Amino acid sequence: MQLRETRRFLDPNGSSAKYAQRAHLVFPDGITRETIRRHPYSPSQDRGQGSHLVDVDGDERIDFLFNYTSLIHGHCYPPVANAIAEQANRIGAVSFPSGLEGRLGQELLQRVAIQPARIRLVNSGTEAVMLAIQTAREATGRSKILRFDGCYHGSLLPLRRNRGSVRVGAEEVLCAFNDPAEAQGTFEREGDHLACVLLDPFPSRGALAPARPEFLDVIESLRRRHGVLLVVDEVMTSRVAYQGATSQLDLAPDLICLGKYIGGGLPVGAIAMRPELAALFSWESGPAIAHGGTFNGNPLTMAAGIACLSHLNDEQIRRVNELTALFCAELRAVFSARRTDWTVRHAGSLFHLWPQTRLPMSPEEAHDPRARRRLGELAFFLLCHGVVLAPSGLGCLATTTQASDVEYLLSAVRQYLLHAA
Ligand code: PMP
User: Fold this and answer.
1) What pLDDT score does 167 carry?
2) CB 67 less than 6 A from any atom of ligand 1
């Protein structure tokens, strides 16, 4: 297959270059978030439809990242775009409920592995994680939290143990992901002081490394013994099954964090909690948590989220997961035909490329500068040849991804391997 050259964004007189120059005058380092950092700068995007994007320099690419997995139906999905337009002409933001938040909330109640549950809506995954931690602290009267090294839980929690100038707070205990012995030792030392364990069942920073059953067993049994709440961060993973990744594991969380696609592509986050925890938000009991947020339950986001989820039933999730599994099997065949050490791991409709035969089992193992460099080179080659993938190797499919999109990506990877050889 002939690949498209999509490198007009690199033209110093092009529109992307001008936007990047202007951004440097406004934003520290010229960016509004780490995830859009590219070298030398990103192509600015003009429009999108389904799985396709067109940048401001006129180049078209197939998206396999979808705003970091937040657009499960792809770009400008007509039911979502129409719902937003209609709602924008009705009421956009208001100091009252709109009734729409109840509808999205009810959708979410069915889609979490806490049954029954209660929901609080926020505006990002970061905020959902912070609110879940606050809820656990109030519920237990303890302040420490246990989380796992290198796992991303939003922009407000440092990723790693004491790296660079960032210090993990005294209220946080970090231990290695997928290491049952270290988790056990930590519970023995700290268990009675912990409010919660914060767990991502397959962290993207570990190339979607699945939590091992023995690791989960230690966490579940010891956190129960010590009265520690379990918070599962499903901001990225909830899309893998109708009731999220947790529904496929032997876990009984007290709180689940959601975000990304549940707002149909608009900014959103949510926590689902056991009904007993909902009392913390009640005026009859205080309230312990007076939870505000100007845009919580924003009608535009609610309308987009309802439209998105009403087109995402079990069957639709299964279909996009199957296409992803098929794509990954074909990709592995490409790698083995070329006798390279590249491989790929997938979970539902998420996938992660990896430039070594042995896949990492934790973010620590994935913290490999050589692997990161090779992944970055592949992503840059793809960016210049009509495909968007995260520089980390993370990608996903949308329900609007076509078999021809997948064919194109396979072809582009094949040509990259030839080019890199
Ligand atoms: N938790 C996880 C597991 C995530 O993947 C992310 C976002 N990538 C977040 C939290 C934070 O979500 P947001 O970017 O919406 O703040």
Assistant:
1) 57
2) no
Residue 46 makes CB contacts below 8 A (sequence gap 6+) with 54, 55, 56
* CA within 13 Å, CB half, 131: 30
pLDDT at 162: 58
**Beta carbons within 10 angstroms of residue 39's beta carbon:** 8
The protein residue with its alpha carbon nearest to ligand 1, atom 1, reads 153
pLDDT at 165: 45
Give 168's DSSP letter.
-
pLDDT of residue 419: 87
pTM, rounded to two decimals: 0.97
What local confidence, expressed as pLDDT, does residue 164 receive?
A: 47
Q: How many whole angstroms from 153 Cα to the centroid of ligand 1? A: 6
Which region holds residue 58: left if phi is over 0, alpha if psi is between -120 and 50, else beta?
Answer: left
SS3 415: helix
Distance (Å) from CA 257 to ligand 1 centroid:
9
Q: What are phi and psi of 304, to 5 degrees?
A: -65, -45
302 and 104 Cβ atoms separated by less than 8 Å = yes
Residue 12, classified by CB atoms within 10 Å of its CB into exposed (0-12), middle (13-18) or buried (19+), is exposed
Determine whether the shortest distance from the Cβ of 129 to ligand 1 is under 6 A: yes
Of the candidates 155, 144, 168, 187, the residue with the CA atom closest to the CA atom of residue 34:
155
Q: Is the CB of 234 under 6 A from ligand 1?
A: no
Is residue 177 within 8 A of residue 338, CB to CB? The reply is: no
Q: What confidence score (pLDDT) does residue 283 get?
A: 83
Distance, CA of 371 to CA of 354 (rounded, Å): 7
pLDDT at 161: 67
What distance in angstroms lies between residue 242's CA and the mean position of ligand 1's atoms? 19
**Sign for the pseudo-dihedral over CA of 381, 385, 390, 393:** negative
Who's near 76: CB < 8 A, 6+ residues apart? 47, 48, 49, 50
Q: Hey, whose CA ends up nearest to atom 7 of ligand 1?
A: 154
- Residue ranges of the chain with pLDDT lower than 70? 161-168
- Residue-wise pLDDT for 62-112, tens only, equals 999 999 999 999 999 999 999 999 999 999 999 999 999 999 999 999 999
Mutate to test the pocket of ligand 1, among 152, 200, 202, 268 (most ligand atoms within 8 A of CB): 152
Closest approach atom of ligand 1 to CA 151? 3
Rounded-to-integer distance, Cα 204 and Cα 23, Å? 28
Strand partners for 255: 231, 273
